Amino acid sequence: MAAYDTDTGDRDITGGRARADAGEDMGAEGALRRDRAVRAAVEQGLVGPDTPVVALLDTVGIRASVAALRAAFDAVTAPGTPVLHAFAVKATPLVSVLRLLHREGVGMEVASPGELALARAAGVPSARTVLDSPAKTPAELREALALGIALNADNPQELARLDALMGSAPTLSPVGVRVNPQVGGGSIGALSTATATSKFGVALRDEGAREWVVRAYLDRPWLTRLHTHSGSQGMPLELMARGVAEAYGLAEEINARAGRRQVDTLDIGGGLPVNFGSDAHTPTYEEYARLLASTVPGLFDGRYGLVTEFGRSLLAKHGTVLARVEYAKSAGGRAIAVTHAGVQVAARTVYAPQSWPLRVAAYDAGGRPKTGPEVVQDVAGPACFAGDLLAEGRSMPLLEQGEYAAALDTGAYYFAHHYGYNSLARPGIYGFGPDGPDGQDGPGGQGGPDGSGGVRFAVVRTAQTSEEIVAESGGAHADALTGAF
Length: 485
Fold this sequence. Notes:
The protein has 13 helices and 18 strands. With 485 residues, the protein is of the alpha/beta class. Helix 7 packs across helix 8 (237-258) and helix 8 (237-258) crosses helix 9.
């Protein structure tokens, strides 16, 4: 029944196929919703000559991902176990998205005062918020303790700060320590947080470090949680599970030496990778939860509460950046579609395309999926450097002037990493869902008889204006350098 054999780690073919089918079904349904939304966005004027780039978020898909996460962990967790699924706000720091997730029963993991402010603006209670950061200031720690927010100390110096603060005022904050299991890295070094020299947490395999952690807990009865996170995109699931197993083993050791269940909650981070190669939602939460259950069976027997911190895997597949083709040209025999979506919305893809490739879909001027012979072409952005490419040498139906290029799987991080090169504006973001009673499609079932109706949009973030760009760039202090010196 398990997706992995306990002894060998080999996949169980039957169970793995069923989970893959589930991920493919979610992807196929999401693709249909996306196609309807793109056409509706064009027809309703959300995108066009005067608004050449917008971003779209699939609310039905987001809810489905939350449901899949909850179901996967419910299936392997002992009844009555406290479980908090906390969304990593860094992935999609948009207040209405956070509120939607909160309404679906998801908490928040924050890593800065700004992210905490966003979570509070979304109405997320302190009791469902976790603060993680390798560089918390004394003021941030005081605020978290005053609000009763759970927090994880990153290092001995931070723990010393907490010693002083814990003695000065009562708090309801659960407090833990983040440890680095040093199990190794994945294919993207920048996102691998369990390497030998990672900046995060207490490095468990360094000389004397494990004993220091155990002693830190024994000396501080208020330390009741243990946190680890081995990395995200590019991390093999087996390596992630090994990191969790290391933290579980440490919690067992601490509790044994304390003679009581001092560590009562394990925060296992997030990090489920996303498939950027197709619409399929793989790997699945079910696959990861079953792997954890076979690798660390004691994790789910009810003795420990659980916290997860997934981000990219909840939102990535549900976002689309839709850009109008301003010009279609050629150079050296290569077709080039020049659009308004480039490095400002996809900095990682532009600067590291091997690690962060994006699928780009072609739509005609009416917003319909474009068919026809595939042509090798580049999809370029508007920034003034040659490398500003969403896709290079990509085979797809030829994009013409006035048509649309859609960058897929952009629901996580692509709305968080705006890059201000050339003072390009942040695009507007719209959530979409079915327009009908109780959230069902309107007349015509699948969005109307022509496949385009029945889609309703809501503003998530308005497009940045030129006035806002000037203000952000110090417009109020225009005379600061000419009048003061």
